[in-house]
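Checked the freezer inventory, then went back to the computational side. Two predictions to log before the end of the day. The first one is the construct we discussed on Monday; recording sequence and tokens without edits.
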Amino acid sequence: MKTRQFLFLLTSLATPLAAQVTSAPVLGPAPALTLPKVERDSLSNGLQVVVSRNAEVPLMSAQLLIFGGARLAGSASGMASFAGDMLDEGANGRNTFQLADELDFLGARLGTGAGWENFTISLSGPKRTFGQAMSLMADVLLKPTFAAVDVKRVRDLRLTALLASRDNPGTVAQRVFFRNVFPAGHPYHDAITGDSTTLTSFDSAAVRNFWSRAANPEQATLVVTGDVTLPEAMALAKSHFGSWRTPSKPMVRPAPDKVAPAPRTPTRVILVDKPNAAQSVIYVGGPGIARSAPDYPATQLMMTILGGSFSSRLNDILREQRGYSYGANAGFSWSPVIGPFLASSAVRTDATDSSLAIFIREFETIRTQPVSATELNRAKAYIVLGSLGDYETPSQVSGALATSLLFGRPLSTIAAEMRATDRLTVADVQRAARAHLDPALLTIVVVGDLAKIRPGIERLKLGPVSVQTY
């Protein structure tokens, strides 16, 4: 026997059994949230600068937000997402590999992309090289190459991914769900990445023309966090973005509140055939509510109990108790334009109808029966402690500030909502469930082997059943 093993065994035998038994530590009260101090200024070209300082470590983070994104009027479907991804494919004479090499040398990370509401160029790295890294960030913004060879390569990759997605049941379920919940003309009816028809029309000139009109300093905010003061951030912004000018024909993003809410329709079941599938993908939901809704805290708490955490009801029943799935979740999608609420899971084919029945039953149960005190307090802790983790690093703080800007809500509302969450009662949770979870107003999408799952689903008599293709 090796000496280390012998000593461990000797120690174990010498220790009384009672002393070897351990128990989980008792959780104390959640620490108070201390929101970062925020300072603001602007450049003469209209670029807003938002700064939050934390000098504990010599790191910095920056996010440049250009409001518009995929909802810019007149943009081709998928173009915003495509242009956002193309920004770091080359800039100011560098190809994507040279750009990556320079960033690595500086110890910095840069990312680009586009969502429905904004474009984002993000940068993080050490303070000592941040000025040099920001010059690369400025080149990506102001001098992107959009080389024809790169545009073709990225376009071909997207077309290939689009073709492959047709064999992915999860992707198919998501797309069928969105196109049925949101009517034609609504931003969420079509995929943000576009389709094969629009993608094939993208070339270097089209992308360059789009970006020249979308990149507008008057619609942009630079968020800088970490070991930086407002004067330092303003100096960096002026040096790297001071020459940025408003386009002669800027594109305009329609106001979020001008988008008509999607209608809530009587419960219907939409099936998509995936022959020989070992699993079925289930999507259940409908139009959601605004982030500014007065009962937002109660709705978040309710959905956390239902399907928003690992210990939630849906995950516990479908995964832990029944073994039908590796996981299940539910939640609201929060965006300036109202998104959906959605519960979903991939389940065994032979348990498809049973799993779907559980979804509907749990929707009804949380509406009609009070949640337990244990569930209530556990969900409160999950939300509050999770929120505290959003303000630890410069990148997390810049992300939190970017979200507050996107919704036009100051950070102070976060602390107010956390206090409101702590005061919520069992009755508040039930009231939110009754207001926003109606089993009679659902869109249900199931992708699976219809020969095996359709008869069982029809026996549930949840609503009219139709079959769609994708």
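The second is the one RB wanted added to the comparison set:
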Amino acid sequence: MSNTDIAAAIDSLPPLREVIAAHELRATKALGQNFLLDMNITDKIARQAGDMSAHTVIEIGPGPGGLTRSLLRAGAGRVIAIEFDRRAVMALQSLVEASQGRLQVVEGDAMAVDINALAPQGPRMIIANLPYNIATPLVIGWLRNLRQDPAFVSRMLLMFQREVADRLTAPVGGKEYGRLGVVAQWLCDVKRAYDLPASAFTPAPKVSSAVVSFTPKALSADAPAFETVEKITAASFGQRRKMLRSSLGEYASLLADTGLAGDLRAEQLPVPDFIRLAQAAEKS
């Protein structure tokens, strides 16, 4: 079936609000659910991803399937949607049929799913309106996978609450600049695509959201292990008001090895300098 035929089949499905009502799919705070029902917005996210025709797109928490519909209509080669909520899994079955084999819904916990095993044939993208309560641990896990396997994903396009997006994209010296931003910006070109008001969601959360794009970088052959960078940044930002000579603790001797000033604070140190410290730690 062509993309045009699949798009027509999807457009013939009931509106999302009718799907929610039919399956009593009220958003649950405990699951971090806030549904994005405006297809103009979900279509915009799908367009932001570019050509997906050769990709398997992993979506987390599809809910009633708004973004899922947009991904399929935009020509994603295959979509694997991971959903914890049984109600949503059932609500997506009509979309599975309309997709003519391009959509697979996996019932399970996204924190426990092995994406490599689920989609062994690349290339892969991850595109999702992430549940707020697991967004940060999910992205840290994916960044760890990316360090271990540069082919893990070719791109991630993820929606976060604004506070997390601020931390991911924070420039050096900013108050939001910290461990999460350092690790993300080390491994990826991280860009804030656009912001969305709380009113775009059902129910409306108390905070606004932002879509963040991650494009993996090519790392040098001597790039440090993910765990080493985690340890260095944890020590540096653990007492961020202190100078590095104090906050780094057992790693303070690395400052002399790398020529970095000990009177700097963690938020003053650019990403490449954290990587130099991690490299020095591995050599020592």
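For RB: The longest helix spans residues 135-148. The radius of gyration is 21 Å. Let me know if you want it refolded.
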